[in-house]
Amino acid sequence: MSQQTIFYLWDCLQYLINGITQGSLYALVALGYTMVYGIIRLVNFAHGEFLMIGAMCGFYAIRANQPMGVAIILAMLSSGIIAIIVERVVYRPIRKSGRIPALITAIGTSLFFQYFGQLTFGADPKTIPPFMVEKIYTFGEITISNLQIGILLITLFVLFFLWWLTHFTKMGKAMRATSYNLPAAELMGINTNQIISFTFFLGAAIAGLGGMLMGYTMSVEPLMGMNLGTKAFVSAVVGGIGIIPGAALGGYILGIAENMVAGLYKSSYRDGVSFFILILILLIKPSGLLGKNTKEKV
Questions:
Q1: Alpha helix (H) ranges present in 122-243?
Q2: Among 50, 119, 120, 202, which residue's Cβ finds the most Cβ atoms within 10 Å?
Q3: Residue spans per domain, the chain
């Protein structure tokens, strides 16, 4: 094996590590998309803005000399509370109006938060410090930081928490029942409005956490949720929207693919490869990698 080939393999391994880190962040945001869709079949295009709100609130908490842990908690709470308000004020009144009105409303809500964010926070990018002091570890020709390891572990913890919540708690079982058949869940005495609000809160809180962690890779600004929200939606569709493991799988696929293409070919194709994967999946398996084909009566 030539020396050039060896260095090429080292580069591939480095881009793989970077892709796993990026994929973890995509997965955190995609979880909210897939949870809300799984409950009420709504593609919440305003979900990326919940990430932005959390990141902004976390930034101002740090600016007010609050510890990083407190800032993360405030970011998660602010995103979750705003999501509950949006669900009750905007989405609940049109829940039974059909998918097209809900989709248009979600897009309008997204645009509202983008421009309201510019009016409130200003359009200039802001920097969130890393959630821990960065340390670099070198193994051969590759480097990995404790921040990358931390992001991966946090994402895995969130996935484990959601698995435990949905399978071993009363709230989780109610969420699964509501997802499976909302009218039947209501007949069984489940407060579906409460379940839907909780799902919005949980998904947005996780997005707020993702917004704080993204301070490691990017600056914070009012339009950040537009691109990241789109990537998270693509991740959810690729993995199988409505399926929690599918959202994580789609996030990692996109993160790895983007870093591989950007590192080995051209960085300008980073965004294009995500949508190429989306088109490919929709052509081959429209329900997503972990999704199941279902028949709907029209």
A1: 146-168, 170-180, 182-187, 192-213, 224-239
A2: 50
A3: 14-284
As a CATH number, domain 14-284 is 1.10.3470
Whole-angstrom distance, CA of residue 173 vs CA of residue 192: 12
Q: Give me the pLDDT at residue 298, please.
A: 38
Burial of residue 202 (CB within 10 Å: 0-12, 13-18, 19+) is buried
Nearest to 57 by CA among 246, 205, 159, 251: 205
CA distances from 114 to 52, 77, 228, 236, 280 (A): 9, 19, 13, 22, 30
CA dihedral 160, 161, 166, 168 (to 10 degrees): 90
- What are the tokens at 258? 């983007």
Q: The whole model's pTM is what?
A: 0.91
d(CA 37, CA 33): 6
Q: Please choose, from the candidates 29, 48, 26, the residue with its C-alpha nearest in 3D space to the C-alpha of residue 252.
A: 26
CB atoms within 10 A of CB 93: 10
Query: What is the chain's Cα-based Rg?
Result: 20
- Summarize pLDDT for 7-36 with one digit per residue, the tens: 788 888 999 999 999 999 999 999 988 999
Q: Please check whether residue 274 is in contact with residue 65, taking contact to mean a CB–CB distance below 8 angstroms.
A: no
* E strands present in the chain: 136-139, 142-145
